[in-house]
Structure formats: C-alpha cells, structure tokens
Amino acid sequence: MAKRMTIRDIAALAGVSKTTVSRVLNNRPDVDAETRERVMKVVEEHGFVPSVAASTLAGRSRLIGALIPELTWPLIPEIMHGVAEVIAQTDYELVLYSVNDRNHQKDRSEILERILERKLVAGLLAIYPGQSTEYLEKLQRQGFPVVILDDQATPSERIPWVSADQRNGAYEATRYLVRLGHRRIAHIRGPLEYQVSHDRFRGYCDALAEAQIMVEPQLIETGDFTLSSGQLCAERLLTLDQRPTAIFAANDLMAQGVYFAAQSLGLRVPEEVTVVGFDDVLFASLMQPPLTTVRQPLDEMGRSAIELLLRMIETPSLPYEWKWSVSERNLSRSVFITHKTHVVVRASCKQLCTPLSLSK
C-alpha cells in the first residue's frame, strides 16, 4: 500500500513550509498567488486530501471543539450532557480536546494554534480552561468564536463567559450553617489561581460578616479541589484544640475528603462535625450520609454555553461587541451569563441547640 501523503510531504515537494501549505489549504489571504499556485499544483498532482473531513475543505467546518480538562473530572459528564443535547439538534459534530494545567505550556499553545490555523473546528467551547485563557484570547482576537464555561485563571473581559453565581452560592451555604447555630465554621478553599476559589471564599466571608462572626485564619485551609487535599486540610482542622463544628468545602470532592478525615479520627458526620460541599456532583447524594451541597445547574450551563457559541458561528457578519454586549449601552463588554445556584439540604448537617435567627 502506498504511503499516505502528509502536509510535510507537500511542503517538501513545493519548496515551502508546512505552515504555508496549511494556509493555502485553508484559503488564507496572506499567501502570494505564485506560491499558492505552486502548492495547489503539487496537491492536485498527488491527489492530496488532509486528514480533516473533505467537507471542511469545501466550506465552513461542521465541527465544534470542546476544550476540557480530564474526563475524570466529576463535573464534566453533566456539563457535556447539556452540550450534547443541543448539538444533537444541529448538523454539527463535537470534537473533544483534553488540555489540563499539568500539560506543558508549549503543548497547550500548539494545540490551540492548530485549531485556528487548520480550521479544524468552527468554534471552541472552553470548559474550565485554567491557564489556557491567554491562548483563547488570542484566538478570539483573530475572529475565532470562543465561549468559556466557568472558571479561568484570569477573568477575561473579551470572551463570552458562562458560569454559576459562585459567591452567592457560598454565601447561602454558610448562611445555612449559621442558621443551624454553628459559629465555628471552617472553610477549605480551592486553588488560589482559580477565580471560583476567591468567589466562594468571599461568599463564606459575607455570611459570617452578616452574622457578626469573625473570620478566624486558623479555620481557613487551602486545598486543590481533590479528595486527598480535602482530607489533609480537614485533618488539620479537626485536630485543632478548638475544632470547628462545621466545615464548608469549596467542592464536593474535598467534602468527601472531610468525611474520610473524620472517619480516620473517629468522628461522626454529622453528629460531631457538619459538612457542606459545592457543585452537587452525581456522587454527592450517594455519600453516607448524603452530602448537603450547593447545586450548580451544570446541565443548563452546558446548554446555554453551546447555544451562545452556535449563535456566534451562525451570525459571523455582525460586529462581535454589538452582538454579544451585555446591553446596547455597553458595547465593549462581552456576554457574562450567570446561572443561579441553590443549597441542596441532605443529611450531613446537624442543628445545634442555639440556632441563630437571621432577618433576611
């Protein structure tokens, strides 16, 4: 069987770079006519067709890219369920790119550069992009449709962003604990490079301030959204001379770690320590006891994010800022869609003898 031609082969035969061949194949305007003709002659002589579907070469791509962290992240299945439901009603197909912050910075950059240069997809939904945000802004500046779902390391004022009301969700969770009578309420934050970690911490502080409870530094720990970090943080909190009566973890995985820490120390949930999480992932209701947590409407967030991206793709002729501005009076700001959160009360919380009554 003859060897399949590659872009590298075409570039060598035409005496140009791989990038130039890619630009010619994608009808980029920044290639002179003579070079374009030389490349296309080689392409035609060898019957070369890139690995991308031939229909993509003939016109606009019918592929939508989803940039995601590891598939093992517990939030991803529900988000992608909402995305898939919308995609199923269109003639687009979904392509997944898994990029996480453990990847080398160059690797992330190269993946995103290929997405733009080769027009592999018509637009990109970036889910929890973390450190990739700067590259996404570069794509967006070049006219490539991008929507971010939830957190990024540095919030962007330019890229449309879909999230949940993180601060209010954390406020409501902490306020619920205060209403149960808890005053020594610990908080396990997420990684400080994530905006959600700061928003959830601020919500926690808001509720304590409202109840005139001081924020005690020894009751604040910082994890990394993993079960093991939640367990380590909780072990430190639960071995204090005056341990907290309640722990609010910034996500459900760390809350599960609190359960493990309590068990290892011979403490019972909720009899000796109350626990609240954040996210309401699938396993939260299956924990023993079932976990009280803040529900993010992940399915709905996925649907609204992909719907916004499809609108951007289908109406490319309209000015970007005008289309997606928050209002006609503020044309320079991108869309920022915030979904409501709510506390899902389960069996991981105990009411103390002297609950506080809040007027609000």
UniProtKB/TrEMBL annotation:
Q: Which SMART domains match?
A: HTH_LACI
| Molecular-function annotations in GO | DNA-binding transcription factor activity; transcription cis-regulatory region binding
PROSITE patterns membership: HTH_LACI_1, HTH_LACI_2
What keywords are annotated for this sequence in UniProt? DNA-binding, Transcription, Transcription regulation
Please name the InterPro entries in this protein's record.
Answer: HTH_LacI, LacI/GalR-like_sensor, Lambda_DNA-bd_dom_sf, Peripla_BP_I
HTH lacI-type domain: from which residue to which, for each copy? 5-59
User: Does this UniProt record's set of keywords contain Cell wall biogenesis/degradation?
Assistant: no
What Pfam families is this protein classified in? Answer: LacI, Peripla_BP_3
Q: What is this protein called?
A: LacI family transcriptional regulator
Which organism is this protein's natural source?
Thermosporothrix hazakensis
